[in-house]
């Protein structure tokens, strides 16, 4: 949906001089600095899929805001380009660019002004006025957006009756009224207290589950990035140092800087079942011969076989005892062997939520995908390893 190619931005030099300086030698940052400029973003490339929540994370001054401002060309890149749905934003006419900013891309900032003398509903509808949408339609859309952010009944209130978190929801509602394809959120929750922040994050995830917007979310808080991001791009000094999913970044930090950053994160909340699972030892299909499955079980010394139904979902677990009985009775399929007891969790369940479920059954915890198909298993030892390494990391950091 959005593709950024080799974005580079130099401030405080003319574009021509900036480009000459960038070409001057290998140490671009230094060359720019010596010429009196600031290399805010240096050769950053990424693409954001439709429906993805893409997080850009980095400390203050790492170039995050400059990157997102280049996406809708509020900042013009020195070199590089942005493609929006395949169209080069740099080649858009002023009119197309206005359309992009007003209708297709919504923005939410950390601080934005609500009009104190207007109701929350009117505030939420504000963005539509400039677009010439009739008043009745404006208010209807504002009500719908307020509903989406959990303020459905409060449209008649005035901003000063609202807490910081509620005001920020009004800002989000304002961005949603135009039903944009993409939402760009620049540190939207940074000014909120931790509890409110947490509840806003949950609200955003809920909104995302229901509406699947394409969201680019900027934050300097790694825990927030991990909680929200489908993928996270870590920036430092204008460059991308790592791009991946939260569990990928935790498991394999690209360098010491990212490692130091992630050692602060509570891994038990970030590591998912998918990140710690391994392939199941023995699986079987419902129509199979019990004797053959029993032979496989004995070879692997597993204590049960996960049996899948024709639709791919788990039908149950066949234990060695049930399989031997069926084999003795010369039964032709596994239908009557499904006695084994097991538990399954979705692959995106965090470790902290499933660790107590392991070890309670003869077979390891089953991990299933969205269509309830078996994708892996988590034996108890795997969980203990993951928790131990999480704890080790925390004590190292302390
Ligand atoms: N308009 C500008 N003119 C000159 N320098 C700028 C301008 N905007 C940003 N910079 C510089 O570019 C670098 C990157 O800034 P940017 O605001 O993109 O970082 P950031 O990661 O978003 O930081 P923050 O979280 O503090 O907003 C910084 O050194 C900043 O001082």
From TrEMBL:
Highest rank taxon of the organism: Bacteria
Domain ABC transporter, first and last residues per copy: 19-262
GO molecular function, one term: ATP hydrolysis activity
Keyword ATP-binding: yes
GO cellular component annotations of the record: membrane
Protein name: Glycine betaine/L-proline ABC transporter ATP-binding protein
Keyword set, alphabetical order: Amino-acid transport, ATP-binding, CBS domain, Nucleotide-binding, Transport
Signal peptide coordinates: none
GO terms for biological process, alphabetical: amino acid transport; glycine betaine transport; response to osmotic stress
Similarity field: Belongs to the ABC transporter superfamily.
InterPro entries: AAA+_ATPase, ABC_osmolyte_uptake_ATP-bind, ABC_transporter-like_ATP-bd, ABC_transporter-like_CS, CBS_dom, CBS_dom_sf, Gly-betaine_transp_ATP-bd, P-loop_NTPase
Source organism per UniProt: Marinitenerispora sediminis
Pfam families in alphabetical order: ABC_tran, CBS
């Amino acid at each position: 949906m959005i593709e950024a190619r080799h974005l580079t931005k130099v401030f405080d030099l003319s574009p021509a001089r900036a480009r000459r300086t960038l070409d001057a030698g290998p140490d671009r940052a230094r060359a720019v600095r010596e010429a009196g400029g600031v290399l805010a973003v240096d050769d950053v490339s990424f693409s954001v899929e439709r429906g993805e929540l893409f997080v850009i994370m980095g400390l203050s001054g790492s170039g995050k805001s400059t990157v997102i401002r280049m996406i809708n060309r509020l900042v013009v890149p020195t070199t590089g380009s942005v493609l929006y749905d395949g169209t080069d934003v740099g080649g858009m006419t002023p009119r197309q660019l206005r359309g992009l900013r007003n209708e297709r891309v919504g923005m939410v900032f950390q601080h934005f002004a609500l009009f104190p003398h207007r109701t929350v509903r009117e505030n939420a509808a504000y963005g539509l006025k400039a677009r010439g949408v009739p008043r009745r339609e404006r208010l209807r859309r504002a009500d719908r957006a307020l509903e989406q952010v959990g303020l459905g009944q409060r449209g008649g209130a005035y901003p000063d009756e609202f807490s910081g978190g509620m005001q920020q929801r009004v800002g989000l509602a304002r961005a949603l009224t135009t039903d944009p394809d993409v939402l760009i959120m620049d540190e939207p929750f940074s000014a909120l207290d931790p509890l409110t922040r947490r509840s806003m994050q949950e609200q955003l995830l809920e909104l995302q589950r229901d509406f699947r917007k394409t969201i680019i979310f900027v934050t300097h808080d790694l825990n927030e990035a991990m909680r929200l991001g489908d993928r996270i791009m870590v920036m430092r000094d204008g460059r991308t140092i790592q791009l991946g999913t939260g569990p990928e970044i935790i498991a394999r930090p690209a360098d010491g800087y990212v490692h130091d950053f992630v050692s602060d994160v509570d891994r038990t909340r970030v590591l998912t079942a998918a990140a710690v699972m391994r392939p199941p030892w023995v699986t079987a299909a419902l129509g199979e011969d019990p004797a053959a499955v029993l032979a496989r079980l004995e070879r692997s010394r597993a204590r049960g076989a996960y049996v899948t139904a024709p639709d791919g979902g788990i039908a149950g677990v066949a234990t060695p005892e049930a399989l031997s009985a069926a084999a003795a009775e010369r039964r032709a399929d596994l239908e009557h062997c499904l006695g084994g007891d097991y538990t399954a969790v979705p692959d995106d369940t965090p470790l902290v939520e499933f660790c107590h479920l392991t070890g309670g059954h003869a077979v390891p915890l089953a991990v299933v995908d969205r269509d309830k198909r078996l994708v892996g298993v988590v034996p108890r030892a795997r969980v203990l390893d993951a928790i131990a390494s999480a704890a080790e990391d925390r004590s190292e950091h302390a």
